[in-house]
TrEMBL record:
Keywords: DNA-binding, Transcription, Transcription regulation. Gene3D superfamilies: Homeodomain-like (1.10.10.60), Tetracycline Repressor, domain 2 (1.10.357.10). The keyword Transcription regulation applies. GO terms for molecular function: DNA binding. Pfam families: TetR_N (PF00440). This is TetR family transcriptional regulator. Transmembrane segments: none annotated. The keyword Transcription regulation applies. PANTHER family: TRANSCRIPTIONAL REGULATORY PROTEIN.
Amino acid sequence: MRVSRVQASENRQAVIETASRLFREHGFDGIGLKGLMEAAGLTQGAFYKQFTSKEDLIAQASERALESATQQWAAAAAAKPMDSLGGVIAFYLSTDHQYEKMDGCPVVALGSDAARQGTTVKASFEAGIKTYLDILERMISDGGHEKSEGKAMAILSIMVGAMTLARAVNDQTLAQSFFDSAIEQVQKIAAS
């Protein structure tokens, strides 16, 4: 049975969305095409009508995951309009985010996987990371672009590092200590 263009487009978006979540949970190599397509409610054969390769899907799913994360940052900032950076920090460096892998930060979940991918996947991550940095820069802008840019890079590095370490340990007290230390350092950087 032939699929309409509208249905084909909807199927493609469903696969990208499903992959963006499952890749964050399992890693790029932790789930095969068959499992991805089944989770999206399609057959493996439909994959080849929608994507040129698994790398093509990985790049598009990564882009979608980073867009989703950016929307989460915007919601966290909007929840604390008088302290948008505080809102993002509270959301990002939280136990809820620590355990929410499917919808959590793709840089934490997939950063090391992305480092082993080709230029297309890295380009998706680079664009998303630059968006994170732009958001942080706007939140801490003090009139000096170079100073704000450096602060934003330090803040993002601390946040990603703390979340990565928190997810890597069993001891929740240690994980919370990573969050608490990161929050303290981020606040110092933002205030300097």
